[in-house]
Amino acid sequence: MYARETLDPARSIWHFIAVHLRRYREAHQMSGQALADLLGCDRSTVSRYESNRLRLKLEHAEIIDRTWNTNGMFTALIGFAQRADDGDWLVELAEFEARASRIRMWETSVVPGLFQTPDYARAALSAGTADDPQSSLERRLARQAAVFDRPKPPRVTALLSWAAVEQVVGGAEVMRGQIARLIELSELPHVSIRVVEKDAGAHPGLDGPFVLLTVGDRDLAYTEAATRGRFLMDPFDVQEVAVRYDLVSDMAAPVGPTRALLKAELEKYT
After folding, report:
1. pLDDT tens digits for 37-80?
2. Same-domain check for residues 153 and 43
3. Counted domains in the chain
4. What are the residue boundaries of the HTH cro/C1-type domain, all occurrences included (predicted)?
5. Burial level of 205, CB count in 10 A (0-12/13-18/19+)?
6. What b/e string do you get for 18-52 counting C-beta neighbours within 10 Å, with b at 16 or more?
7. Residue span of the structural domain in which 200 resides
8. Nearest to 63 by CA among 83, 84, 34
9. Please, are residues 210 and 222 in contact by the beta-carbon 8 Å criterion?
10. pTM
11. How far apart are CA 181 and CA 126, in angstroms?
12. For residue 227, what pLDDT band results from cuts at 50, 70 and 90?
């Protein structure tokens, strides 16, 4: 559970909103149930707002601002948080990955960061727009360690587009090590890797990569774009991503044939 004591309003705008929502409610001597009645939702929704397990909806922020005469403070904060692109997404992703009991992912063009060898990651980061590739590499390797070096690692299921496997990054030697790493990971009891092959045709995964994480008693989704990522915490939004995952999964090769495909790909570099 993402408890209130873990919130840091100095690090995240959404944390700031959650913390101050509770402070304002208590300052107005309003119970959680009373606020829920005002917003037309249930008590658990207010609790999730105040613990950042659910992000405050704009329509609810507008009701709060009118009722508490905040001059539009919560509405403005939500707008600012939604527009912000301060790198906080990757920080939060790493935190959630480190606590997740289950990670499901779909990748369209490159090997997922959690699966990358240091050489592959270095080549990918150097080809991108990272200001400091070495620091980015260290963060990526730390993310991997936080997931795979735990006493009880999470269940990881990955769906990879054929392009992610065949795209050459860093040259033949780098690819040899990377494909070997994928085969090694695929043999772990808590890791499943499946490839969507070239002849799969059009499918919902073409919209872009995403990650589904189970953290405590909830699921959340992380979607990627060219310049930023975004978390989806509303259950309806997460469900839409989960359905996309299932649809892509239906088109992916089984685990055994995928491992054979990876071994055949490895032979190209030996």
Report:
1. 999 999 999 999 999 888 899 999 999 999 999 999 999 888 77
2. no
3. 2
4. 21-64
5. buried
6. bbbbbebbeeeebebeebbebbebeeebbebbbbb
7. 88-267
8. 34
9. yes
10. 0.72
11. 20
12. low
